[in-house]
Amino acid sequence: MNKIFLCKETVKDETRTALVPSDVKALAALGYEIAVQSGAGDSVGYNDAAYSAAGAKIVSTLDEGYQFCDIIVRINKPDDIKGIRENALHVSSFDVFNQKQAIKEYAEAGIKLISLEMVPRTTLAQKMDILSSQASLAGYYSVLLAASKLPKIFPMMMTPSGTISPARVFIIGVGVAGLQAIATAKRLGARVEAFDTRPVVEDQVKSLGAKFVKIDLGEMGETAQGYAKELTPEQVELQRKGQAKVCATSDVVITTAKVFGRKAPVLLTKDMVMQMKAGSIIIDMAVKTGGNVEGSDPEKEVVLENGVRIIGGDALERFIPRDASDMFSGNIRALLEHFWDSENKTFRLDTEDEILNGCLITNDKKIVHKSFMEQG
Known about the structure:
The protein is about 30% helix and about 15% strand. By secondary structure, it is an alpha/beta fold. The protein folds into 2 domains: about 150 residues, NAD(P)-binding Rossmann-like Domain (Rossmann fold, 3-Layer(aba) Sandwich); about 180 residues, Rossmann fold, CATH 3.40.50. An 8-stranded mixed β-sheet has the order 3-2-1-4-5-6-18-19, sandwiched between helices. A hairpin with a 2-residue loop joins β7 and β8. The longest helix is centred in the middle third of the chain and has 20 residues. The model has no long low-confidence stretch (mean pLDDT about 90).
């Protein structure tokens, strides 16, 4: 397998592309042959000529690209598998826990599937981690979005008319997105507080100049993958009570608490939100997986009767498509380089490799990932 096909994205509102010209050039130098569907990089500012100059072949249609390739790369799961050849390797983000029927279809069709969000969170695989690269940008943009909607400025300002106090920003969830949100809000001059169920992140919060909110939830920790462990109902209630006090005095609340593969926990109830100040902004970055905020909507901004505005922050990295594409492309390039067999000039499908074992979902007409094998 050494022929790569970059598809043009078809998902509504998608602005990114999965491979950029600089990485196409690097992969071509390694020995891969690359075809690019015409217009695949237009939304990012990379035209067909840029890909041609990098060594890619430009094709007009999906079918033409599918016939050329044995490795398909894209951002999202395709609309259907029509035209994808048997034994082709499909590499993309796939939302596998919500696509069980699609996984069966890929296995039955003999399509090998790598789901990029399943890449293990290890030191060796860090450069392939799309969740971290995209979450960092989403966390950054969540603050810009909140600042653009808030009816006051973020920094303290001394003026002839008096002193403007800084905005108060509360970040819930101190993962990659949360840390970037903290750093961005601090750069804009806000007074920042943050909470996470993992006490181990307190030093990281403080190192960014923010205050860590302490809420006693009892014994807590994180999974082997670095995610926060799921809370018990009793712990969720304790967390809500502790957060309610901070939310009531905050101008902006950004929630980033996702539980990988499961529905997001509701951390802010309507009662809590109704205690917030008029004009306050809430960004719910977990809105796609059920939402951290009661009443948040992935399709529209919600304005409550007390004047609080709830904004669903799904895939905010799409608002920064150039950098988001560059980073996503770098993750794919790292994966393709890592498994390149220079002697045989092919992608090495090593099912014993720890990284591939973590993200390969289907192979040889079977579901091979342990989390989904019972479906096969």
